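Recall that a protein's primary structure is simply its ordered list of amino acids. Everything else, from secondary elements to tertiary packing, is in principle encoded there. The following example makes that idea concrete.
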Amino acid sequence: MDKQFAVIGLGRFGGSICREFAKMGYEVMAVDRDIERVNEYASIATQAVQANSTDEKALSALGIRNFNHVIVSIGEDIQSSILTTLLLKEAGVKRVWVKAQNDYHHKVLEKVGADRIIHPERDMALRVAQLITSEKIIDFIELSNEHSIIEVGVTDKLAGKTLTELDVRAKYGCNIVAIKKDNDILVSPIANVVLKPGDVLVVIGQNKDLNRFENEGV
């Protein structure tokens, strides 16, 4: 069940998510009011269904409570987005992520129980800004307003050292959770692994700590 998703709203953002889930081999149910959009994703999603997500009976008929994770990506209809989110949470869906149109929409979604609120343009702008302004960061993923994951290439300063010698957690308050080596990835790497040029560190922590590690440790 952890690998079964439902996407409600098959516009540009919701449709892209459906395609990515399908590429990753996950089961995904695609839902939209527009039959043309539903037909477009019939060959991509595991199941594509025309339904009105603001209708409690329609959601129940979809078996929506059986999905652990539902993404609401309804376009400009903020009212439908809010009502759909409320119905999903009342149905007992554990994780409901919702695309917000603006700050007002965001605030209402928080009040009705959305588990994560997505601002696609804003989130992408932040990611691009982080990548452009840093010569060291290879990739950046925002987890919350305060926490992120970054990928940092091993520099000459780091090469030849072990994780014990770096002592990133004690010095900077963040954690190296994986190391990418060639085509392999070491998850929860051992402390005496030696870093080499070309390796990539996957680091998680508070943004202020990550910035300090980037500026001082790398």
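The two ends are 40 Å apart (CA to CA). Residues 151 and 202 are 5 Å apart (CA to CA).
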